[in-house]
Design a protein that fits this description.
Radius of gyration: 20 Å
Largest sheet: 10 strands, mixed
Order of helices and strands: EHEHHEHEEEEHEHEHEHEEHHH
Bound molecules: nicotinamide-adenine-dinucleotide, 3-isopropylmalic acid, manganese (II) ion
Number of helices: 11
Number of strands: 12
Length: 349
């Protein structure tokens, strides 16, 4: 497997090192060969060269079986231009329309919700990943005056909405799940989200074994906190998906625990932790590497290396149960030591 690795900025570099360490443990235990190419694209690289990524950057990425990203974002690049090109650019240019964000609580101790355990928090969010407000269409008129007008358009296309909603239903059906919930804001966003309504109603009858429910996004946020156990599959747009997956990450123990895949089924896909570069945590060996390590497991699983992915998941679970984790989830290990423990678990379990 040829994997491009973009460690990026801040704690992205530290957690990526641990994910790579765990991948080497997988290699030792299961054989197989993982050919990693480290790409320097980051704030550092941008500040030094003026280049966010080379002009053939996306073509280069397409030649790999998968891409792994740590995190991008640096206060020295206030408009985060490099993150837009590298992270959002990869999602758009490789057409990675499925943002797959599993939400799975590993141990009751990690959950801030009263009396909720692993059986209550086990669902996935499919976030549309190529449209919405993220396309950056809009403009500013009379900028920096009291008359300033700022317009930011939200794009919803039939094709875009249809393929992510369909993916959610197909995913549920393939796994014997019976509940898909779509969330929009069609009561206020009467044009764009009417399209989500139309598509959802069009697709739902094709999945008779699946109960299709709808919540407005504000109510969904409330129900996620009050009764997370009612959800199996949630599908929503790009921005709402971004927001609710940070909320959902807290159910798992925090942002440091959450993993994601940016997927176009059958094509080169990209995997990354849900968290960002956490500049205040950077360089201190305190960041939780589990989100990154679990994202590496998602990468392997997506490429068909199921046993390898399961071994990582088992080692992560063991680390959590034995409290051999970082301080954000109640342990006392550093980033590297937490990674060591999980890597050892992969070779042992
Ligand atoms: P962030 O996710 O970087 O950090 C928010 C807070 O979450 C941190 O202060 C910390 O308390 C906690 N946290 C995050 N990751 C953690 C980890 N691995 N271990 C322990 N705690 C962790 O979000 P932010 O502060 O809003 O953004 C910082 C920068 O990262 C910004 O430039 C932002 O644009 C960027 N960002 C990038 C990505 C990405 O690359 N995918 C995602 C989110 C934010
Ligand atoms: C995420 C991040 C990104 C997003 C930012 C860095 C643009 O928050 O991956 O969740 O909003 O998609
Ligand atoms: Mn986010």
């Amino acid at each position: 497997m040829k994997i491009a690795v973009i460690a990026g900025d801040g704690i992205g570099k530290e957690v990526t090192a641990e994910a790579v360490k765990v991948l080497h443990a997988v290699e030792q235990r299961f054989g197989g060969s993982y050919d990693l190419e480290h790409l320097p694209w980051s704030a550092e690289h941008f500040l030094a060269t003026g280049e966010t990524l080379p002009s053939n950057g996306y073509d280069l990425l397409r030649q790999f079986d998968a891409v792994f990203i740590g995190a991008l974002g640096d206060p020295r690049v206030p408009d985060n231009r490099h993150a837009r090109d590298i992270l959002l650019g990869t999602r758009f240019e490789l057409d990675l329309y499925v943002n797959y964000r599993p939400v799975k609580l590993l141990d009751e101790r990690l959950c801030p919700l009263k009396e909720r355990g692993p059986k209550d928090v086990n669902f996935v969010v499919f976030r549309e990943n190529t449209e919405g407000v993220y396309v950056g269409i809009g403009g500013r008129f009379k900028a920096n005056t009291v008359d300033e007008v700022a317009i930011q358009e939200e794009i919803n296309t039939y094709k875009g909405v249809h393929r992510i909603v369909k993916h959610a239903f197909e995913w549920a059906r393939a796994r014997g799940l019976t509940k898909v919930c779509m969330a929009d804001k069609s009561n206020a966003m009467t044009q764009g989200h009417a399209l989500w309504q139309r598509v959802f109603k069009e697709l739902a009858p094709q999945y008779p074994g699946v109960t299709a429910t709808h919540y407005y996004i504000d109510a969904l946020a409330m129900y996620m906190v009050l009764d997370p156990g009612q959800f199996e599959v949630i599908v929503t747009n790009n921005l709402f998906g971004d927001i609710i997956t940070d909320l959902a990450a807290t159910f798992q123990g925090g942002l440091g625990m959450a993993a994601s895949g940016n997927i176009h089924p059958g094509r080169t896909s990209m995997f990354e932790p849900v968290h960002g570069s956490a500049p205040r945590f950077a360089g201190r060996n305190i960041a939780n590497p589990i989100g990154a390590i679990s994202s590496m497991a998602l990468l392997l699983e997506t490429l068909g290396a199921k046993d390898e992915a399961a071994a990582i998941d088992a080692a992560v679970l063991r680390a959590v149960q034995e409290n051999r984790v970082t301080s954000d989830v109640g342990g006392s290990l550093g980033t590297r030591e937490a990674g060591d423990f999980i890597a050892a678990g992969v070779t042992r379990l």
